[in-house]
Amino acid sequence: MTHAAASIALLALGGAAVWIYPRSILAFLVFQCALLAIYVARVPWWLRAALLAFGLLVMMPVIGGRNGYYLEVATQVCIFAALALGLNIVVGLAGLLDLGYVAFFAVGAYTWAIVGSPHGNVIFGGGFPLPAWMFYVFLLVGLLVAAITGVLLGLPVLRLRGDYLAIVTLGFGEVIRVLANNLDKPINITNGPKGLTPISRPPLPYFVEYNQGFYFLVLLIVIVVILVNRRLEDSHIGRAWEAMREDELAAQAMGVPLVRSKLLAFACGASFAGVMGVVFSAKQIFINPESFTFLESIGVLAMVILGGMGSIPGAVVGATVVTVLNIQVLKGLSLWLNELKNAGTTILGYNLANLPTQLEPAKYERMVFGIILVVMMIVRPQGLFPARRRQRELAHLGEGTPPAAPPS
Amino acid sequence: MKHVTLRGGLVLALALAVALLPGASPIEAQGKGTIKIATQSPLSGGQAALGEGIKLGTQLAIDKFKGNLEKAGFKVELVPFDDQAKPDVGVANAKNIIADKDILAVIGHLNSGVAIPSSEVYKETNLTMISPANTNPTVTDRGYGNVNRVCGRDDVQGVVGSEFAAGTVKAKSVYIVHDKTTYGQGVAEFFRDDAKKKGLNVAGFEGTEEKSNFDPILTPIKAKNPSLIYFGGIYDQGAPFFKQASEKGIKAKFMGPDGMDSSDLTKIAGKAVVGMYYTSAAGPASALTGAKGFVDDYKKKFSKNPEPYAAEAYDATAIALKAIEAAAKGGKLPSREAVSAAVRQVKHKGITGEIEFDGKGDRKKALYFVLQVASDNPEKWGENKIVKQLTIAAPSAKK
Amino acid sequence: MDLQLLVTIFPQVLLDGILLGFMYALIALGYTMVYGVLEFINFAHSEIFIVGAFVGVEILLGLKSAGLLEAIPWLPVLLLVLVAGMAASGLLAVSIERIAYRPLRHAPRLIPLISAIGVSFFLQDAIRLFESIWRNAFNLVYPTLDVLNRRYDLTSTIDIPLKSVVVIAAALLMLWALWALVNRTKIGTAIRAVAEDQAAASLMGINVNRIISLTFLIGGAMGGAAGVLFGVQYSLVNPYTGFIPGLKAFTAAVLGGIGNIPGAMVGGLVLGLLEAFAASYLSLLTGGAFGAEYKDIFAFSVLILILIFRPKGLLGEVVRERA
């Protein structure tokens, strides 16, 4: 009971905090922590579901109305959560290390960007951009195209294992980016570094505020992705993936069709990225190859591993933590330090206004992020929300390491 | 090693957050209010040096020109944002910026790929963005009332370059290399197209993302022996390129766009670039008195020479402050719409020439210089000579 | 298509490719040694490499401002810089292993990878922080030693600068020394034993932790040497320069068969040659439709092809299959 009461109180506190301090990043952080606390609290499942639904479906849009920036954070969290869930299938479940995952995201993004912007005319003649409602059709097209790309990548690399696979996927990711950057000649397909714009956004008739509507759209997609993931994990094919991850030879001996399973893993993982690519290009209105660098792939991989490999809540939480750190917490920290500096605050007898420009806080966000990554890995190597099966394995592996508390 | 449980960590984080909550609300300023100018540029990562130039130029301009507003009772502050050269980060920052009612102008970005989606966000609240560096024609061709730029357009600068190569240098053949970015490829393509029109022999046109090793590109260039090499890109890539070209014994004349306009060009390439030409909207310190003061102030404050785009950011900020002053007549904090409208009315004699925006936010008339590097001593960058001066108006949008 | 031109530049392109290949090979050694022992991709190696380059440039700039650079002959200067760069990078690699990897030795194998990425982010901006306070600039240029730029004509159309000769000679020397160390000495035997089976090695009285530290020291030192040579050859270094060559070198290591020292050299050379030929020839061969910008696509496509036919890399048989 105390858990239930505490959960409700926390959510209320978070909501109130954001309402009173709409510009305070900490207030929003309290709200986010409250949602996480509800997820881990020992409460009946219906109460947890109800509170989470209330928080995400009612409170979040209201908060977003108060400060649109938080809505952007929530939307990006959803986009990266879907990416992390997709990569989780490939890396976490099937155990195929993919360092070029962002390629599929790019494929999805360019699929919609080309037909959803006037650039389509350059390739196919007249009739572009397609009407905005076609966006919903292209969510499926993006999914298919990315899945096919996934299979195409999968085919030649089926024989490779471990890090040989990793390097090929890395190469593949770079190939897709370089192609996007260079296919403005001999035929102009991607418009090269200049990118594509303006990309049509989907019509969202039932919502007053467009960004709130967009948030609901992305949230809906993430929920669908989570449901699909859950079904997959417990299905025949999910078990086959995990068997393959643990021991390919043994899995094959038990009758797991390796070729089909691997290709399916690539296709499934890629398809989620493809869908989100379509959404991303509509959200940004403009895309160019700069959004699809190797570092983005690494970022998504970090989310999956940080959350706990092979774990669905892990992927979501990992994506949330990394995104929130990068665009909210670290930014907030440097803004706050900047305010102290502008106000001429004195710390230990040193006036911050005299801080040399070399030490500008905004420059060292990435450095702090690096330290956080290392510390998190050392403190919690199994990830924030490890998959149950992994947890038990780890308990055997590490000498004297007690199993972590179960997430619920 | 003990495992920290999730729940324990969560409780700790929450307690910390709640404890800090009151302190984190924005510090209230005295007087009539605070006016903030935001910069968005990459402050970390590979393009940090250029992004920092934008931030420092803005900082210098705020310190120099905030006097009038402070006399009127406002506090003027700089809020630097790191967009990491990533579109998603830039958009998130943009949302954060428009949520802060005190921010009345944005100076940025470095990358067009970040500027275009971010400016869609600024447009939601009509927040003015004055770009020091985004030369991609799309930035202003969208015709937004809040988007302006101080820098030139790719299509103008490339043409200035080829006009000089054909008319003054009388080059017989040119070899064009670019850095595969919106900026570098943009100028290079316009240079190539105009050069062809003028009957120059374009011996080659190559793009490369390479930053260190230019040997494989230089080998065919050396064999083809062009009379001029044009590098569409920025000095941090151009300087090693020209240095290695000269070490390889290539005798061609060198030329580049305003991305080369940095004393670091000679710091890196040394003797190799003496005599090299570059086009720029910013005149050298020796020719423009305003520019001399800027370079001196910049050096005094940050103890280094200005990066490219620092001068543009400085002018952009001066315009923003002028517009805010004009919109704040009556002593009240102006609205963002008023500032955006006022920016289009400002006539500013800046260090990169006379600036006045047209209906799209491009400069009405841009004065271009072709300069020649005079010495291999970076300290003498300001002594580079103007060899030609061209005034070209921005073309009207094609659509 | 200008056939005459293609033939004329061929030897020069070959030379460019070999030079680049040795550079990759030296960096690849760091990846390969660590991988051979721990089966783990040390992502921070590109920063270990660039730290070597920075230590080198700091010493050279220090000598220059003291007026000693011109006074001392170039060979001792270069040796001093090389040794200093190797020492710094080697020690850095050992400390990284101690702090960020050793606590994770028993974690699943992707965990240290993320830790390594964290270290890489941290180091990039830490170098920048240091240099921007120390010199107020972080794009640093290697002072030119005029002797090293002297060019020797091999034929009327091909020449080679002294510095490239130095780079190739140094790379060959170090590759040989490393190979000898691993295959001909007691320490080398210990390293190979640990790579084979850590538990068994420790039962044989080998101090596994010490051997792993030693591996990082050697791999880091090779990276540091590569950093210095990279600076001498290409002159401009900044904290973010290391990333791309690091990635390429890792590719080279895999191409040759990761965990295998001669493999690193073969892989580096193949990758270097592929890149050089792609960058020089693609544009000429296709009449400008495809150009130097496709060199990475070309290199990666060949990589994929090679791995399809030899899934364990070019010299990969030596690596034992592990479940």
Task: Please specify the SSE layout and strand pairing.
The complex is a heterotrimer of chains A (408), B (399) and C (323).
Chain A: H1 2-20, H2 25-40, H3 45-66, H4 68-93, H5 102-115, H6 120-124, H7 134-154, H8 162-182, H9 210-234, H10 236-246, H11 248-253, H12 258-284, H13 294-307, H14 312-342, E1 346-347, E2 350-351, H15 365-379, H16 388-397
Antiparallel strand pairs in A: 1-2
Helix pairs in contact in A: 1-2, 1-3, 2-14, 3-4, 4-9, 4-12, 4-13, 4-14, 5-7, 5-8, 5-12, 7-12, 9-10, 9-12, 10-12, 13-14, 14-15
Chain B: H1 6-24, E1 33-41, H2 48-65, H3 67-71, E2 74-82, H4 87-99, E3 103-108, H5 112-124, E4 128-131, H6 138-141, E5 147-149, H7 154-167, E6 173-178, H8 182-197, E7 201-207, H9 215-224, E8 228-232, H10 235-247, E9 253-256, H11 263-269, E10 277-280, H12 289-302, H13 310-327, H14 336-343, E11 348-350, E12 353-355, E13 365-372, E14 385-393
Parallel strand pairs in B: 1-2, 1-3, 3-4, 4-5, 6-7, 6-8, 8-9, 9-10
Antiparallel strand pairs in B: 10-13, 11-12, 13-14
Helix pairs in contact in B: 2-13, 4-5, 7-8, 10-11, 13-14
Chain C: H1 3-38, H2 45-65, H3 74-101, H4 111-134, E1 140-141, H5 146-149, E2 151-153, E3 159-161, H6 162-184, H7 186-196, H8 198-203, H9 208-234, E4 236-237, H10 243-256, H11 261-285, H12 295-309
Tags for this entry?
heterotrimer; A: 408 residues; mainly alpha; ABC transporter involved in vitamin B12 uptake, BtuC; 2 domains; two-stranded antiparallel ribbon; 16 helices; 1% strand; globular; disordered C terminus; B: 399 residues; alpha/beta; Rossmann fold; five-stranded parallel beta sheet; 43% helix
